[in-house]
Design brief:
- By secondary structure, this protein is of the alpha/beta class.
- It is built from 4 helices and 9 strands, in the order E-H-E-H-E-E-E-H-E-E-E-E-H.
- The strands form 2 sheets. Strands 4-3-2-5-6-7 form a 6-stranded mixed β-sheet. A 3-stranded antiparallel β-sheet has the order 1-9-8.
- Helix 3 links the parallel strand 5 and strand 6.
- The chain is globular, with a radius of gyration of 16 Å.
- The protein starts with a strand and ends with a helix.
- The relative contact order is 0.21.
- One of its GO terms (biological process) is purine ribonucleoside salvage.
Length: about 180
């Protein structure tokens, strides 16, 4: 797998440091509240686990699975809800945990969905933000790193369900997906 990576953008140590920083910030911001933390599957699962371990607040955890890439390297523009929440978001402080914000379409879909379901407040924490890929104006409240407009994998992010288990975030060699 490592041979398929053009270069490492963020090492395991870089990720650990930013997760610790974000965990402290979220602890401060959610003090006295009991947020519903929603992990967007599958990509955000590793980041979610690491973040909530560093949040010193009571919280509930749920998962949602949506898809817009459908196996490719670019968003299709169509969002599919593959698996919905078990918890009710009505009157809850919702914290969406994402792996990467690219076009913004998936995030816009989720925020609108939870607002329509009467969430009290909806905030977003993303490991990665790729502003150059944005086609929809969305607000990301907590960001770990900004990434260039390249195809990245690792630490939960995948290409054709592979590379999620890399402990770092790296740029995938174009020769891997330009077959």
């Amino acid at each position: 797998m490592n041979n398929d990576i053009e270069r490492v953008l963020y090492s395991e140590e870089d990720i650990r440091a930013v997760v610790t920083k974000l965990g402290k910030q979220l602890t401060n911001d959610y003090q006295g509240k009991k947020p519903l933390v929603i992990s967007v599957l599958k990509g955000a699962c590793l980041f979610t686990v690491d973040i909530i371990k560093r949040m010193d607040v009571y919280l509930d955890l749920d998962f949602i699975n949506i898809s817009s890439y459908h196996g490719g390297t670019e968003s299709s523009g169509k969002i599919d809800l593959l698996s919905d929440l078990k918890e009710d978001v009505a009157d809850r402080d919702v914290l969406i945990i994402e792996d990467i914000i690219d076009t913004g379409r998936s995030l816009e879909y989720l925020v609108n969905l939870f607002k329509k379901r009467d969430a009290h407040d909806v905030k977003v924490c993303s490991l990665l933000d790729k502003p150059e890929g944005r086609v929809v104006d969305v607000n990301v409240d907590y960001v770990g790193f900004h990434v260039p407009n390249e195809f990245v994998v690792g630490y939960g992010l995948d290409y054709e369900e592979l590379y999620r288990n890399l402990p770092y975030v790296g740029v995938l060699k174009p020769t891997v997906y330009e077959k």
